[in-house]
Amino acid sequence: MKKFLILFLITPLIPCLGQEILPSEYNCFSVLVGKNASIDGTLLYGHNDDDGFQLVNYYVIPRKNHPKGTKQTLQYGGSIPQVATTNKFFWMEVPGMEVSDGFMNEYGVCIGSNFCGSKETEMDITNGGILYDLRLIMAQRAKTAREAIQIAGNLIEEFGYRGSGRSYCISDREEAWVLSVVKGRRWAAARVPDDEVMILPNYYPIAEMDLQDTFNYMGSEDLISYAQQKGWYDSSKNEKFNFRKAYASNGALKNKGNTGRAWSAYSSLEEDYNRNDNFPFSFKPKKKVSKQKLMALLAGHSQGMQGMDNTESCTIGNPYELNEGMICNGGTIYSFVVESRPWMPIEIGTVMWLAPRRSDVQPFIPWYCGVTEVPENYAKKGYLNAMQYHYTPPSDIHEMSNNLAYWHFEVLSANVNKDFVQKYPVAFTEKRKMENVLLKAQEKVEKEALKKYKANPDQAIKFITQYSNEQANKAYLQTVGLLNLLEIPLPNTKTKTIKIKDDVPVEN
């Protein structure tokens, strides 16, 4: 076991607030596919969250009623009026981290984010500003992606954003949006056209925008005038306002990890772009996109990419050490592909296919929007304790435990890194077997769920909750089996790893 622990010493905590060049283990990646750009009219949202060595808990937070006149206190001291009822949501919680959590609420609003370095250096905030609470409040209150943008915009203008910059991808059953936030009180949002695809590494994706077109764009009132004041945009040149050009840091735009991952994604989708092209905000794909295509993209290692693949298709070494700009990398802590189908009841029609660590060795398993609980071993504590301790988790939060599924996923991933040539093909084969079974079973399962929903919605929700939980348990048992097959020691309660809690959480 001591040999295994050494693996984590190469992934130290690096405070990245404001940094322009991030190590690969902190590079998140997102793709949004408009409903008319997919093969079956499904809106798709794919995301890798990359944060190095972490624990991820999975919870379902129930809907909650609040007394009239109460306040919701923010992390840094501000407060806002509480709403009468906050939404139920599925929560991917990373204890102690401010910018890593993902959400899918009961209305099918899904939220994730990517670090994006900005030019802004001034911290214009009130009452401590806002950071983590931004995504939490969107999940708690929004019924659509558009409403989530409006909620977030008001909060940013009132309190000011604490981070250097970030882009939030927000989807619902009809629309996909990108919300790009700058340190302070500036923000911009753009809707992904229904027939287009948006690819996001770690720089602002929003380019030219017309704030008069309120159907497709939103932004802070002084977004353009502030850029003019700072000398980042010159309106006298009669050029359209380009948010990315005005606000993005040059380091983020030129970062090889960013350009490499974007190019890898375009190539995976068979689009004709070069690595150093000025990539658009979104594009019409030559071929319509499936969820399986996104799953493969998110699990990619830059295979076959000239100048990036140095592993001879992963047969001579570990791509995480040899390849450049990979979408799936050693720091990926979870991956998901959300499919949103408005022609079904929302509880069944929106499903998050989630790989609970690295998607190159763990299968994407389905979590339906209507689920009411998760397996006990998928979370360290109950959700009430999670809310209480998210910002200041217990000191033992990163101690490995044999009774938590996540540590088994972590141990498998880490040991695949250690002996990639021998272990990766075995793990990948088992992952694909399970995914193929789940994908093949989807139509039959949903047909039964819809039948039950028509007769009794509560019975349908119970059915899909049981089904999602069963698949999560199968993924866990598959990982345990792989650990045994590959002779990898299991985690245990006596083993302690390095702590990565820090005063400044890593921005991914």
Question: By helix and strand content, what is the structural category?
Answer: alpha+beta
- What's the CATH C level? Alpha Beta
Question: What Rg, in angstroms, do the CA atoms define?
Answer: 22 Å
The CATH topology is what? Answer: Penicillin V Acylase, Chain A
Instruction: Supply the CATH architecture.
Output: 4-Layer Sandwich
Give the helix tally: 14
The overall pLDDT, averaged over residues, is: 89
Helix coverage percent = 25-40%
Number of DSSP E strands: 18
Residue runs with pLDDT of under 50 for 5 or more positions: 1-25, 493-508
Question: What separation lies between the terminal Cα atoms?
Answer: 29 Å
Count of the domains: 1
Q: Can you say what the CATH homologous superfamily is?
A: Penicillin V Acylase, Chain A
Strand content: 15-25%
Shape: globular
In the sheet with the most strands, the strands line up as 3-8-9-10-11-12-13-15
The major β-sheet equals: 8 strands, antiparallel
